[in-house]
Amino acid sequence: MQRNQLTMKKIFLISLIFVFQILIHSSVWAQLLRPIQWESKTSTNEAKVGETVELIFTAKIDEGWYLYSNDFDPNLGPMLTSFEFTPNDTYSLVGKKPTPVGAKKKFDAEIWNGEYTYFTKTAEFRQKIKVLKENPKIHATANYQVCSDESGKCIPLEDDFNFDGIKVIGGVAEEKKLDEKSKNQANSNQSQDLIKEETKPLETTNPNIVQVKTDSAKSNEEQPTTNNQQLTTNSQQTILTNKPPTGNLLAFMLAAFLSGLAALITPCVFPMIPMTVSFFTKKEKSRAAGIAKALFFGASIVGIYVLIGVLFASIFGADSANLLATHWLPNIFFFIVFILFALSFFGMFEITLPSSLSTSLDAKAEKGGYLGAFFMALTLAVVSFSCTGPIVGTVLVEAAGGQFIKPVLGMLAFSSAFAIPFTFFAIFPSWLQSLPKSGGWLNSVKVVLGFIELALAFKFLSVADQVYHWGILDRHVYIAIWTAISFTMGLYFLGKIQLPHDSPISKLSVPRLLLAIATFAFTVYLFTGMFGAPLKALAGYLPPQSTLDFDLTAMKLASPTNVSTKQVKYGDRLKLPHGLQGYFDLKEGLQAAKQAGKPLFIDFTGHGCVNCREMEANVWSAPEVLKRLQEDYIVVALYTDDPLELPESEWVTAKNGKVKKTMGKINLNYQEERFGVNSQPFYLLLDHNQDLLTPPKDYDLNVGNFVAFLDAGLAEFKKRKL
C-alpha cells in the first residue's frame, strides 16, 4: 500500500513538472504582439455637399519596430500598407490611394535589391474624399506589416476605421469639373495601387481637426480583396544573402581606429614622428612642461579631426541617408573620388594642399607655447594630407548618411589612434630608438591602401547600378573586378609588380610572403563566387545573388533529385528556398506527411519578412539543417501576407466573426487562434494530429540551436509512433 502511494506521488510530481514546463514554454511563445496603435481624424468637422475632406490615419509605432509604407514597387517583396474603403453613395474617393506623409526611403541591396519606404516611431497617411450626401458613412480597413530588426519578427496586422463625425452644412460646394477618367478612379474601390510612383507628402494647414475612434473589429465580414497583384518569391534573390547589422558604432569606431594606425605608417606621416618629438624636447626647459605641451598637442590633433567630423555630419548626417543610399549622383561622385585616392596612393600623382598654407602654419608653430603646439598639430594635419586625406575621406564616406554622431565618433577614433603615438613619443623620447627605420616599406603600405581604396570604389558604383538597373556591374562582373584587384595585390606583395615610388626588392621578407599567401587565399575565396558560392562574409558589399549569370549552386539545388516533379498547390506562385521540396497548403502537406510517415515542419513566413529571409540564408542553408529538412520532415510554408483570394469553400470565419478570404489571412488566423502567435518567422514541428512535438522556434541564427530543435522533434515523433 505504501509502495503504491509512493508510486502515485511520483506520477503526480512528474505530471506537475510536465504541466509546469508546458506553461513556461507557452508563456514564452504564446503571445499576440501589437507594437503599433492607430488613430484616425478628419481635416474638418463641417463640409458642404461636393466639398473635399481629408481622412487622416496616424500610427504610433513602438521603439525598435518599423512599418512599411504604400508607395514603393509591390513586386519588391515587403508587404505594402493598403487601405480598403467600403463603397457607398455618401462619398467618393479622390485619388488612387492614401498619401504617406514623412516616410523614409532605403535601398536594400542584400535582401530586396531595391528601394522601399517605411516609417519609424510615427506614421501618417491621408486620403481625400468627396462628400456626396448628408451624414457620410465611411468605413476603411488597413492591412499592413510591422517588423523589428531587434527581435527578428514581422507581424501582418489589420485595423478598421469608421468616420462618421462629418457634419454636412447647408449649400452645395462649387462642383469641380472632372474628366471621365478621374470620376471612374474616384468612385472605384481603392485598396492598393499596383504602380510604383513618386508621391509628394501632402501638407494640410487646416487647424480644425476632429478625433475619430478606431473600430478594431466591427465589421462581421471583410471587404473583398481587390488587389490584383500576385506577389512572387524570387528564391535566388532572397535566400543567398545575409543582412549585416545596422548602427554598429563600435565596429565602425574600431575600423576608424585601425585606419588611424594605418595612416601612421604611410610615407607622409611616419618620418614626421621624430621631427615632431624634437619640437617638444628642444623647446621646453623642463620635462614636465614638455609633457604638458605634448598632451595638448595630442588633444589638438583629436580636436582638429573631430571638428572635421562635426562639419561633415552637419552636411552629410542622418538627414542625407536617403540621398546617399539611393541617388546615383553622390554614389558616382564617391566612386570617382575613391578612384582618385587609389591612383594617388599608387604614385600617379599626389593630392596636396597649397604649400603656402603649410608654410604659414609652420611659422606660427615656431612661436612656441600652447598656441605653437596647436599650430604644430594643424601643420601635421596639413603636411600629411596627401597620405591621410584619402583615409580620412574613406572613414567619412562610410559614416555618411548614418546617425549624426557617426562621423564625429569616426574622427574621434581615427584621430586618437593618430595622436597617441605622437604624444607618447613626445613624453618618452627614448622609445624612438625602437621604431623601424624609414624606407621603401612605407610606400608599400601606401600602395596596399590604394588597392583597398580601388576595391571600395566599386561598392558605390554598384549601389547606383542596382538602384537604376543599369546592368553594368552585376554580381559576376563585380566579383571578377575584386578578384583581379586581389590577385594583383598578391603579385605586388611578391615583388612581381613595382610602382613609381617603390624601392627594388632583392629578397622577399617573411611578412610580405605571409601577406601574399593571405591575399591569394582571399582571391580563391572570391573566385568561387563566380560559380554561385554565396560569399556570406562579403554579402554587404556584393550585388545580390540573383544578378549572377552562371550559378552552379542554384543549378544543383534545382536538380531533379531535390525538386519534386509533382505539381503542388500554389506551386506556380510560391517556391521554397535551396531547392527544398515542400507544400504551401496545410491539408496537402499533412496528407503527404501521413503517406511518407514523417513529421511536419511548419514555416509561418511572409513575402515581406526580412528576418525569414535571413533565417533561410544563414540557418536553412547550413548542410546539417538542409539535410534534416530534406530527409526527416515534410516542409509546409504558410505565407501570412499573400493576397491571393481563395475559393469561397476555403474561407474561414475567425473567432471575432470576420471572414478570412485570402491565403495570407487564413494562414495568419490559423497561427493566431491555434498557437496564440502572430509574428514571423515562426517554426513548428507537428505530428499527424497537428500536435506539437517540441516547443516552437522563432528567429534564431544559431545553427546548432536549430539542429537541436529538429532533432528533438524527430525523436519525439518516433517515440509517439511506438
Automatic annotation (TrEMBL):
Alphabetical UniProt keywords: Cytochrome c-type biogenesis, Membrane, Transmembrane, Transmembrane helix
Protein name: Thiol:disulfide interchange protein DsbD
Domain Cytochrome C biogenesis protein transmembrane: from-to ranges: 252-461
Any single GO CC term annotated in Swiss-Prot or TrEMBL for this entry: membrane
Locations listed in the record: Membrane
One example of a Gene Ontology biological process annotation: cell redox homeostasis
Residues in Thiol:disulfide interchange protein DsbD N-terminal domain copies: 47-160
Biased composition range(s): Polar residues: 184-193, 202-214
Membrane topology: Multi-pass membrane protein
InterPro entries xrefs: Cyt_c_assmbl_TM_dom, DsbDN, DsbDN_sf, Thioredoxin-like_sf
